[in-house]
């Protein structure tokens, strides 16, 4: 900023002194010492302009270098953000799919639940008993997938997802317990 002000000051002075020199009739009688002082001042202003342009140019290059360094840092951060955002979206999608699988499994198991107040018929109990091993395999697989997702979320410091995966795994543990209760009657 100082270079710009100094440059403006030198330029104004150069124009003022130059106008006086150019306005002097050199064919008439004039004060030689005065004109010599004006020419010296004009030269000083030209030199000052040159120095300030150099200073300003240096400052602009430095500012450009600082701006480029900041831009490179922001670019790296943006890349890391995109990686993190994509990872987050992948984990959330994985959680959504697992949640859907849990709902489907719960609905499939729920078809064996007797109506409110009723007890399982022998036929219902036999069907349930024959399906329990398949349900057990699905429950165990889902619990394992949720534990893997929870670990991945913890490693990625996604606390909310970690907590949600743990909660859904606990729900499946409860489903597993209810399976045994339904089967045992």
Give me some keywords for this one:
single chain, 86% helix, mainly alpha
Protein model, in words:
By secondary structure, the protein is mainly alpha-helical. It has one domain. 86% of the residues lie in helices and 0% in strands. The protein has helices spanning 2-22, 32-110, 122-155, 159-184. The N and C termini lie far apart (86 Å). The model has no long low-confidence stretch (mean pLDDT 89).
Number of helices: 4
CA distance, first residue to last residue: 86 Å
Poorly predicted ranges: none
> What is the N-to-C order of secondary-structure elements (H for helix, E for strand)?
HHHH
Query: Overall mean pLDDT score?
Result: 89
Overall form: rod-shaped
Biggest sheet overview: none
Global Rg:
42 Å
Based on helices, strands and strand pairing, what is the structural class?
mainly alpha
Q: Residue share in helices?
A: over 70%
Task: Record the SSE blueprint.
Blueprint: H1 2-22, H2 32-110, H3 122-155, H4 159-184
Helix pairs in contact: 1-2, 2-3, 2-4, 3-4
Write a concise synopsis of the structure shown.
The chain has four helices and no strands.
């Amino acid at each position: 900023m100082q270079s710009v002000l100094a440059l403006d000051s030198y330029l104004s002075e150069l124009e003022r002194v130059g106008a006086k020199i150019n306005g002097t009739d050199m064919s008439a009688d004039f004060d030689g010492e005065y004109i010599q002082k004006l020419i010296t001042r004009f030269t000083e202003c030209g030199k000052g302009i040159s120095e300030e342009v150099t200073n300003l140019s240096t400052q602009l290059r430095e500012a450009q270098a600082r701006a480029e360094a900041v831009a490179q840092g922001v670019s790296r951060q943006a890349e890391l953000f995109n990686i993190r955002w994509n990872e987050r979206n992948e984990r959330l999608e994985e959680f959504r799919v697992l949640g859907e699988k849990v709902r489907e499994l719960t609905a499939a198991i729920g078809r064996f639940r007797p109506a409110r107040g009723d007890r399982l018929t022998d036929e219902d109990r036999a069907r349930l008993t024959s399906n329990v091993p398949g349900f057990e395999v699905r429950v165990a697989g889902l619990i394992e997938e949720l534990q893997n997702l929870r670990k991945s979320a913890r490693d990625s410091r996604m606390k909310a997802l970690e907590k949600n995966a743990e909660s859904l795994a606990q729900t499946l543990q409860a489903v597993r317990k209810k399976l045994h209760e339904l089967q045992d009657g």
